[in-house]
Design brief:
The chain contains ten helices and four strands; from the N terminus they run αβαβαβαβαααααα. Strands 1-2-3-4 form a four-stranded parallel β-sheet. 57% of the residues lie in helices and 9% in strands. The longest helix has 15 residues. α1 runs parallel beside α2, α7 crosses α9 and α8 packs across α9. β3, α4 and β4 form a beta-alpha-beta unit. The protein is of the alpha/beta class.
Length: 187
């Protein structure tokens, strides 16, 4: 059993401990829950991941599903859904809070089983673009981001531009608002 206070610590512990189930808060400093989940899934395909969040948005749910996460519970529903979610994930079955399931099913206007729908969902921004959005929204400058990620400033700027174009955002203020609304960072 491990505990971490940042997304990067959670990834390191999950890689080291190889747990059956990891529970991540969506709003962690340094690396958000979705990006941490992606890294954990790459390192340990058999580890199931459950994301906890205070709020939900359609985009956030798409990103969670695209990251390979098969469990999502709103913190407001955790008193009755958390144990059920962990039990489902222990049997390698997905569990999404009812609001998230509604969003997923309405995305396809279908009553198909959730497991089938999960295979179809894709997010709008790449994990690297999302990581750059988070770092910008946390107040980091382009050169700082480039240095911390080991990439060039031009690459950072390219990812930022691509994400803003895909999301139809026109300035950094809108990008920060998007990050707050979608729980990429805490307000």
């Amino acid at each position: 059993m491990g505990e971490a206070s940042t997304g990067r610590e959670a990834v390191a512990q999950a890689i080291e401990l190889r747990p059956d189930i990891v529970i991540l808060d969506i709003s962690m400093p340094d690396l958000n829950g979705v990006d941490a989940a992606r890294r954990i899934r790459r390192a340990s395909k058999n580890t199931e991941i459950l994301i906890l969040s205070m709020h939900y948005s359609d985009q956030l749910i798409r990103e969670i599903v695209d990251s390979g996460v098969r469990g999502y519970v709103l913190k407001s529903d955790s008193d009755h859904d958390l144990l059920i979610a962990v039990e489902n994930l222990a049997r390698h079955k997905p569990f999404f809070t009812s609001k998230a399931t509604e969003v997923i099913k309405s995305e396809f206007n279908t009553d198909e089983p959730l497991t089938k729908i999960l295979k179809w969902l894709r997010n709008r921004v790449t994990s690297r673009e999302r990581e750059i959005i988070q770092l910008i929204a946390e107040g980091n400058r382009g050169k700082e981001i480039a240095s911390s990620l080991g990439i060039s400033f031009k690459t950072v700027d390219s990812h930022r531009s691509n994400a803003m174009r895909k999301l139809e955002l026109h300035n950094i203020t809108e990008l920060v608002r998007y990050a707050v609304r979608n729980q990429i960072i805490d307000p």
